[in-house]
Amino acid sequence: xxxFLNRRLQALIDADAAPTLRDIRRGIEKESLRITPQxxxxxxxxxxxxxxALTHPHITTDYSEALxxxxxxxxxGISTPLEFLDRVHRYTYGQLGDELLWVNSMxxxxxxxxxxxxxxxxxxxxxxxxxIYRLGLxxxxxxxxxxxxGIHYNFSWPKSFWQIHQQAEGNQQPLQDYISSRYxxxxxxxxxxxxxxxxxxxxxxxxxxxxxxxxxxxxLKRFDHSxxxxxxxxxxxxxxxxQNNAQSSLHISYNDIxxxxxxxxxxxxxxxxxxxxxxxxxxxxxxxxNANILQIENEYYSSIRPKRTIRKGERPTQAxxxxxxxxxxxRVLDLDPFEPVGINEDTMRFIDLFASxxxxxxxxxxxxxxxxxxxxxxxQAVYNGRDANAKLCRAGRQTTLQQWSEELLDKLEALxxxxxxxxxxxxxxxxxxxxxxKVRDPALTTxxxxxxxxxxxxxxxxxxxxxxxxxxxxxxxxxxxxxAGQAIFADMAKTSLTEQAAREAESQPPFAEFLADYFxx
Length: 521
Description:
Blueprint: H1 3-14, E1 25-35, E2 59-61, E3 67-71, H2 80-93, E4 100-101, H3 125-141, E5 151-156, H4 159-169, H5 175-193, H6 195-201, E6 206-208, E7 220-221, E8 226-228, H7 257-268, H8 273-278, E9 281-282, E10 285-286, E11 304-307, H9 316-323, E12 327-333, H10 345-360, H11 368-384, E13 391-394, E14 397-400, H12 401-411, H13 413-423, H14 427-440, H15 446-456, H16 461-477, H17 483-505, H18 511-518
Antiparallel strand pairs: 1-3, 1-4, 1-5, 2-3, 5-12, 6-8, 7-8, 9-10, 11-12, 13-14
Helix pairs in contact: 5-10, 6-11, 7-9, 10-14, 12-14, 13-14
């Protein structure tokens, strides 16, 4: 452990910070495509029994009408979000008829962009805006690109932890300013080291050939129409995923909250010639919200985001400027096809440790060369992470992924002990041990298990993923929610539909006026 990290950690131990860790709040956002029994993308509308995708607090859609998103409440306790996800899956499967939920991050068989229905949110101005934003994504990147799914892990320390940490640091800033500054320290280190998460939890080493039809790539083709790389971990996080030539030149700053907001806003207000060619409103029909590099903040695809709960009509950057960082959203995780809800406790515990390390380790300001190195390391972990000779760039020198991983995991040992002291038991140390085994034996990683299963059982990616989806469906259907639980979700669905109808019945300004007001600083 570095002297700097050790000093910070020891200060927390001396101040008895362990009990505050029990009040860490976690939430999960889990995306899953609805598919037909044949494994093609569902063309049906969002099921009314699941409520309104616009106003339901826990069941919505992302890009496509078929891309469900389940959102857990932010709660304490490591198992609580997983229990909620289990319940929402059991309810949902009771409403899907013969449809299934795809369990992989890379999509099912999608032959053409037109086969991907864009999510619809009704006729209110905010509903129209959400729909048009997604239309814009389709025009810019292709609709197939928007069928990729993932797990987002939301995480925040309690106020009591921050008060102890600030006092131990001898910092005199207003508390929220200190919290925001420290979260940005975490964000910079996350970008430096998140290649480790790609290696450990990547679960998309292969993809159906239909996804890349007509595109250049460097993947190998199997006899079963699967594309893969032998040492790959997460094709979802590769340039085959969210491609954006205009974004490639962006340098969003994570040095502090002001520079982050400034650089994002610059992209939102800077025209992009290729998007101007698409047009914004053509023959009275909107194709995108604007012709700028980013339509809105969320278009910037990042592996982690600083977040603040927004108010009605407020943009994410405005919320950050108003009240600072409230929590972080980790976006680097693939769906785990071997887990019915896509993630397990061991993964969550390790993310807790990794985030804590990123917070407490020294975090220098980021230069352009640092961003380039971080992207190169992610690319290497994505395509060749399980290769024995995989090399990463570390402070201008090459090192092996395995050696650097071992050193990082060593630094998490004392953190795991602190977390176990808080929770009781050995859960965090056990999770750390599991990840160390993956570093020493790449065959234990999820990505390796996917390819090994495909090879052993002579399955293509499509058949493997469909079989996993069928197995998970059967598990959920065998455990339908009890009547009281069914009633709770049914009431939420009904209430959300009523709320959407009420919004649409309200008097609204013309859409162009609404949009101009939304983007007004």
